[in-house]
Amino acid sequence: MQKPTNSACEGCDLNQASNLKKLGINIDNNDYVVALAGNPNTGKSTVFNALTGLKQHTGNWPGKTVTRAEGGYNFNNNKYKIVDLPGTYSLLSTSQDEEVARNFILFGKPDVTIIVVDASRLERNLNLVLQILEITNKAVLCLNLMDEATRLDIEIDDRTLARDLGIPVVPTSARSKEGIPELLKTVHQVATGEIICKPHRIKNVPKNINNAIEKLRLEIEATYPNVPNSRWIALRLLDGDERIIEAVKTGEFITE
Ligand SMILES: Nc1nc2c(ncn2[C@@H]2O[C@H](COP(=O)(O)OP(=O)(O)OP(=O)(O)O)[C@@H](O)[C@H]2O)c(=O)[nH]1
Ligand SMILES: [Mg+2]
């Protein structure tokens, strides 16, 4: 017999929030790993706290996340480990705490990366978004601080944004938990492959550069067979990125 339902919207997104179980620091035996990345002060730790029930410091100052924090949650009978990263402006030249974020995004092999952006300052956030989309196939854009954007009369066409970026976009106001159920559901759909992302990538790489990248990429993979993002590493080597040169020499990222 079919299970009786109390209301027509029992299966709706908002109701799905009740499928969330906050697991605090319990991160053993997870099915999926989710990273929270984005510019500083976009609400990453606020999202993290809402999902895990933990109390990562949030705020302007002092409240900066400087090391990564890990927590767990259960959604639709799947166990997730979620990693709150320090804010970063770029994956290219990074300060020491930004490097914690960059290393995890690049080498931590998250199943899904939630890129948290400030909807009231979208343009300046897109630089990092595009960089992250160069190196991952599974990402969700969390368009946070929507309350702030609305207050400033900023309208965002999130459908067009999703189409142009090639990843799902979920508007949220994390401080008041608006949009969090939709975010959870979307992350779940990306993690399970129900939603396939087609991230925006830079096209038309000149042939000679492409050849050089490919040559290097094969060498990197021969030395470090399990390294993710070997093409990106090759590109950074060609660009003379000191930290990546160092990392390739020492193999430090292999331990991540
Ligand atoms: N108005 C509004 N404020 C928010 C929202 N989400 C987060 N905040 C506030 O924004 C500030 C920064 O939030 P955090 O969660 O610490 O941001 P973060 O991205 O973790 O910051 P870093 O760790 O420094 O990168 C805090 O004061 C939050 O309460 C939101 O949706 N709307
Ligand atoms: Mg933080």
Question: Would you write up a description of this structure?
Answer:
With 256 residues, this protein is α/β, with parallel strands linked by helices. The protein has two domains: 18-192, 3-Layer(aba) Sandwich (Rossmann fold); 207-250. The protein has helices at 44-52, 96-107, 122-135, 146-151, 158-165, 180-192, 207-223, 230-238, 242-250; strands at residues 20-22, 32-38, 69-75, 78-84, 112-118, 139-144, 169-171. A seven-stranded mixed sheet has the order 1-3-4-2-5-6-7, with helices on both faces. Helix 3 (122-135) links the parallel strand 5 (112-118) and strand 6. Helix 7 (207-223) crosses helix 8. It starts with 19 loop residues before the first strand and ends in a 6-residue tail after the last helix. Residues 1-10 have low confidence and may be disordered. Guanosine-5'-triphosphate is lined by residues 38, 40-46, 58-60, 63-65, 86-87, 144-145, 147-148, 173-175. Magnesium ion is lined by residues 44-45, 65, 84. It holds the Pfam family FeoB_Cyto. It comes from Lutibacter oricola. This is Ferrous iron transport protein B. Residues 31-193 form the FeoB-type G domain.
Shape assignment: globular
- N-to-C span: 49 Å
CATH topology of the largest domain: Rossmann fold
CATH class of the largest domain: Alpha Beta
Compressed to H and E, one letter per element, the order equals EEHEEHEHEHHEHHHH
Please tally the β strands and state the result: 7
Give a short account of the largest sheet. Answer: 7 strands, mixed
What ligands are attached or bound here? Answer: guanosine-5'-triphosphate, magnesium ion
User: How many helices in DSSP terms?
Assistant: 9
Number of domains: 2
- What CATH architecture of the largest domain do you see? 3-Layer(aba) Sandwich
| Average pLDDT number | 87
Instruction: Give the radius of gyration.
Output: 19 Å
Strand order of the largest sheet: 1-3-4-2-5-6-7
The name of the CATH superfamily of the largest domain reads P-loop containing nucleotide triphosphate hydrolases
Task: Name the structural class.
Answer: alpha/beta
Strand content bin:
15-25%
Q: Assign a percent range to the helix content.
A: 25-40%
Low-confidence stretches: 1-10
